[in-house]
Amino acid sequence: MPAAAPAAPRGAAPAPPAAAAGAAAAAAPPAAAGNAPSVAARAALFGTAVEQLEEVPARVVGSIPDWLKGSLIVNGGGDYTQMAHMFDGYALLSKARFEGGAAWGSQRFIDTEAYRSYRQQDILAIATGGGSFTDNASVSLHAVGPAGEGGRRPRLLAVSETPKASYLVNPDTLETLSKATFPDKVKGDLTTAHPTPLSDGRLLNFTRSLPFGGFHIFKQDPETLARAEVAFLPDRRPLTPAWLHDFPANDDYAVIIEHPLYMSLPSLLFGTPKPFVFMDWLPEDGTRITVVRLDGSEPNRVFTAPPFFVFHYSQCFEETTADGTRQLVVDMAAYDDPAILNDLMLQPLKQPSGQVSRSYYKRMAIPLTGPKGGGGELPAPSLLVSDSNDFCEFPSINPSYRGRPYRYAYVMSAVRPTNMGNALSKIDVATGETLTWYMQGGAVGEPLFVARPGASDEDDGVVLAPGGGPDGRSFVVVLDAKTWAELARAELPFATPNRFHGIFSPGA
Ligand SMILES: [Fe+2]
């Protein structure tokens, strides 16, 4: 079993959940029955979306701040016909635009080759759907193109985990503009959907060449999309490379965290069943952590740690401790093992029973001083929460605090029993205190912070998240980032299926 066992849930002092009224509740909601998304909510999440090309007014319940001007655009699956896993749905963009206290909604499929083949009833395309080697760009969105007023860029890059699953889309109309091309010679068959934006505007990411390859870490020009390789790190198991969904990074360092979750190439190519989708878990290997200085001025520092599994990292910043030790602080939503991958199979997701795997907001401190090359053992990541919240996903922060010390994280959480995330929490990493917003029988997605114009406090703004009510109605919820009270909900007159990652596009 993994050694990185989180503390068992503590306390759980019964307190009424914030429920649909949307008041803030201080952590530890009760373990009431039937907290999982309702039948209607799940039907909306994993059904087939109907496109809404023209913006239509949303019904606003509550009061949206007048200053909120821009669009929450979120990528995710839009059609799960004959699919097996939450990650497989064909890419659909959904949008909620806010201005003057009102809101409008629209949604549109991305015009990928995979989706076009499916629409033409190409059986092979259906069978290979959203697999790793298709161009189904369903995971995330990144602003690219020349920076205009307020730093707004005119295009969005929709991506998934293969370089060919990269499409340029128009943030105003959601139209697919073109397949993205990269004018460079960077090798690789896989990538991540989680590039780190650097302060000079470039994007930091890596591709994977395999087998007998490794991590090609690159910086990408946001206008030309040209990638320049800055470092290469060989895989620790050349025939069975570790699978990484994300990696912590900042302007100076990239950290490659190889959990002992290894891709099976026969499974990827031929669909051979494996314990974790297309992967094997070998906890005896522990986790290999490599710190790469991006300008090459320091040798890589390599550490081992107990096994753990992470989809998403929220932070990576450098600090000097009281005794003068330089270290990188890495924060994440961490699981003991990759069982969450099986939780996200559609068959269990569509059932109201079962429990989503436990995960916690955690921190690792990685020394930047000491023996060159590292070589040390690191302890398992440690808890950053002091309450009983035992599900954490989609961790996010105020983006202007990226790469530097911060205080507040915003995460998807869970009020159990449930087999999916159904709540949103604000975590104070200084105190471990957690505030939770929750809607019984509903579902929610990734929280994104938007600062109030002129704000100076880190949490002065709102957090937006897509969600679905127990009646199957889709909405975007607007939470006060300071108090965690629900300010408003923009209810959309159409169903939006399961969402992954989004972006707030300011302005019109
Ligand atoms: Fe992700």
Automatic annotation (TrEMBL):
A biological process from GO: carotene catabolic process
Chain ranges passing through the membrane: none
Cofactor binding summary note: Binds 1 Fe(2+) ion per subunit.
Cofactor entry: Fe(2+)
Binding locations of Fe cation: H194, H245, H312, H501
CC terms in the record's Gene Ontology section: chloroplast
Keywords assigned: Dioxygenase, Iron, Metal-binding, Oxidoreductase
GO molecular function: carotenoid dioxygenase activity; metal ion binding
InterPro entries per UniProt: Carotenoid_Oase (IPR004294)
UniProt cross-references to PANTHER family, sorted A to Z: BETA-CAROTENE DIOXYGENASE, CAROTENOID ISOMEROOXYGENASE
Family label: Belongs to the carotenoid oxygenase family.
Protein name: Carotenoid cleavage dioxygenase
